[in-house]
Sequence to fold (156 residues):
Amino acid sequence: MEVCFGDTIIAEHCKKNGILWTGIDINEIFVKYAVKKGFNAELLDLEQINDLPKADTFIISGSLYHFQNDQESLFKKMLDCAPQMIISEPVINLSNNKGIIGKLAKASASVNGKTQAFRYTEKTLLETIEQLSKKLKFKYRVESLFDKDLIIVITK
Fold:
């Protein structure tokens, strides 16, 4: 299960390796593109879904910041969906810069017309994961810093 999938890179990897992939995204263009390529993708608002389909692994890549105001609810859904979660979240962002570049970067991201100015740093992401792990009783490990993304694996 991959949410906020955007492109189909992970879906293509899964297909090549005989892994069943399901994607959920709020962006109609991404979903149409995935379906056109033969992937099982659904146009849904993750915040409006109470129960996600069961999966072996849950993936969210580059989109956790969209849920900054309702992280606990999202993590509960993810933990109910799968015993393992993989989070790949950018922690080095242009929007963290001061000046015009930072302002432009903050203004450029929006989902359904809502501007998404917040971005994680490595420190704020790890603080968030630590707080949620204590509250929701999960384990996590930082796998690596890959390019600008922090890769975190979560298990129940």
In short: The chain has a mean pLDDT of 88. The first strand starts at residue 2 and ends at 3.
